[in-house]
Give the backbone structure.
Amino acid sequence: MAGMATHVITGAGSGIGAAVARRLHARGDELVLHARDAGRAKELAAEYPGASTLVGDLADPDKLSWAFSHQSLPDRVDTLLHIAGVVDLGPVGELTPKTWRHQLNVNLIAPAELTRHFLPQLRLSGGHVLFVNSGAGLRASADWSAYAASKHGLKALADSLRHEEHDNGVRVTSVYPGRTASPMQAKVHQQEGKQYDPAQWIDPESVATTILMAIDLPGDAEVNDLTVRPGR
Ligand SMILES: NC(=O)c1ccc[n+]([C@@H]2O[C@H](COP(=O)([O-])OP(=O)(O)OC[C@H]3O[C@@H](n4cnc5c(N)ncnc54)[C@H](OP(=O)(O)O)[C@@H]3O)[C@@H](O)[C@H]2O)c1
C-alpha cells in the first residue's frame, strides 16, 4: 500500500492510537479519526490538520450505525485500525454486569460493528483490518476476567473475519501487546495497588512501529498475529 492511503482509527486520542495517528499523519496519509463525542472530535481535528473525524460512543454499539448514518463517511477506506479499548480489573466475585458489559461493548462488540460498517469499502480497496488485542487475549490471569474475555472474543472476531474475507482480498491482523506505557497502564497499576513507572513498560511508539509494519507489508503477505513483549 503506497502513501495517501485512508486509515480509519479508533483510540487516536491517547496511548498507542495517538502514536499510530502521529506517524501516519506525519507521512501524509489520510486520517479518519474516530472519537467518542463531538468535543473529543474537535480536539482531534485541531491536533491533526486535514484529518476528518467520525463520532460515536463505542460503549453503545447499538447506536453506532444510526450515528454514522448522520455523518459524512470516507469514500475510500484502506485500513481500519481498532485501537480504542478499556480495562477494569477485579475478581469475578465482585465484577458487576455493568463492568462486564462496558468492556465487552468497547473492546469487542463495537469493533465488530465498525468492521461490519466499513467492510464494503475495505473489500473495494483490498484493505486491511487491524485489531489491537492484548496478552490478555491469549491468557486470562486472576482479576482480569472481563477484560480477558473481551480480548479473547476479539481474537475470535479477527480469526473468523480473516477466514471470511481472505478471498475478498481483505487482510486481518491481530497485535497482542504486553504492558505498554499509557494512561490505561497507569490505571491498571492503580487498580493493582502498584507504583507506576512508565519506563518499565513498552513505549507506545514501539507498538506503533509493529502496527505500521503490518499494514505497510505488500499485498503478497499478511501478518496474522503479532505478539509484542516488554524488552527489559
Ligand atoms: N496499555 C497497555 O498496557 C496495553 C496492553 C495490551 C493491550 N492494550 C490495548 O491497546 C489499546 C490502546 O490502549 P492504550 O494503552 O493506548 O489506552 P489509552 O491510552 O487508555 O487509550 C484508549 C483509547 O480508547 C478510547 N476509548 C475508550 N473508550 C471509548 C469509547 N467509549 N468510545 C470511543 N473511544 C473510546 C479513548 O478515548 P479518549 O481519548 O476519548 O479517552 C482512548 O483514545 C487498547 O485496545 C488496549 O486494550 C494496551
